[in-house]
Amino acid sequence: MYLPLGPGIVRVTPASVQRGATISIDIQGYNTHFKEDDPSLNVILKNDNNLLCASEITIGSSSVINAEYGIPPDLRTNNKKDYYNLIIYNEQDGTFFLRDAFAVERADTAKGISMKCTTILEMVSPEGKNFPYREILYESIRNLFFHVPMWFTMIFLMLIAFIGSILYLSNGKEEYDLIASSAAGVGVFFGTLGILTGMQWANFTWGAPWVNDPKLNGAALGMLVYLAYFVLRGSLNDETKRARVSAVYSVFAFVIFIVFIFVIPRLTQSLHPGSGGNPGFNTYDLDSVMRPVFYSAVAGFIILGCWMLSLTVRYRQLFKIQSEKN
Question: Which of 58, 84, 105 is the last residue of a domain?
């Protein structure tokens, strides 16, 4: 929790200019270390066709700079408006950027000075270890180590319930029904925690704890499917019939749940990672600093879930033995 976030760019104002104009851009950084008379500082606007260097850079503070550009009237473009990535480099912060930070609009009558440059910046990491700076997420990126492992643990426990139900239907042993129902119960607990942490994250990044998103709606429907599983078990008094019917329901519930949270969101557009073909954990989402912590968190939460499952099974076994004695 004490590991700082890497440097990044929060905003750029103004957001656009016409070709041929001279523009002064205010840049707000995050966890940056801008310094006066820093010869290593470079501020560049770049897209696939053009590279523009600042004619003058003024330091406002360690996180605020002003860069002036003369936009050439003869920029290569086929569009009415071209978007540029803003790239900043200094020795302490390394290289960081903001995608599509600035737009240059076409102006047929524009006249201006040329500030084209040939400087090429290599991607250099900041000094020390940092979590990656991600637009919109900021410090809330740390929630990745809680929210996602809780859902992984829930899915793992639901898989145990699925396998336990199949084994019960195969040989009718009561212990498999006990394991399946207990795993579903602990899984719902972790799923509830996953939804609560997800709502906190959504409130910070999207401005509301719940939005009309296929991933979120699918998760809610999946949880309702498993809550109905416990309603079904509670409505049947005969133990053998309850175990058999619940096992059949559990098998279908797991398949439906996977469809709701994995298949449908991948086929639709969603604010949530892991949608529209995005696997959710690519080089943009995780880096070498986050991966060891993330995978350790996943393993730790799964172990915790298995431990809670074993306690639940043992408690229910003892409770049943005590009930039979009485």
Answer: 105
326 residues of the chain, pLDDT tens digit each: 778 888 999 999 988 888 778 889 999 999 999 998 898 899 998 888 888 888 899 999 999 999 998 888 777 666 778 888 999 999 999 999 898 888 888 655 444 444 556 566 677 777 777 777 877 788 888 888 999 999 999 999 999 999 999 999 999 899 999 999 999 999 999 999 999 999 999 898 888 999 888 888 989 999 999 999 999 999 998 989 999 999 999 999 999 999 998 888 888 777 777 655 444 555 445 667 788 889 999 999 999 999 999 999 999 999 888 877 76
Q: Computed over its alpha carbons, how large is the radius of gyration of the chain?
A: 27
Do the domain assignments include residue 135? no
- Domain span including residue 272: 141-325
Helix axes 239-258, 174-205, angle to 10 degrees: 40
Of the candidates 96, 93, 98, 85, the residue with the CA atom closest to the CA atom of residue 32? 93
Q: State the pairing for strand pair 94-105/16-18.
A: parallel
Cβ contacts of 296 within 8 Å, gap of 6 or more:
none
CATH of the domain at 54: 2.60.40.10
Residues 226 and 83 in one domain: no
The Cα–Cα gap between 141 and 130 comes to 12
**Quick one: DSSP state of residue 106?**
-
Task: Quickly list H helices, the chain.
Answer: 144-171, 174-205, 214-234, 239-258, 264-267, 290-325
Give yes or no: residues 149 and 195 share one domain.
Answer: yes
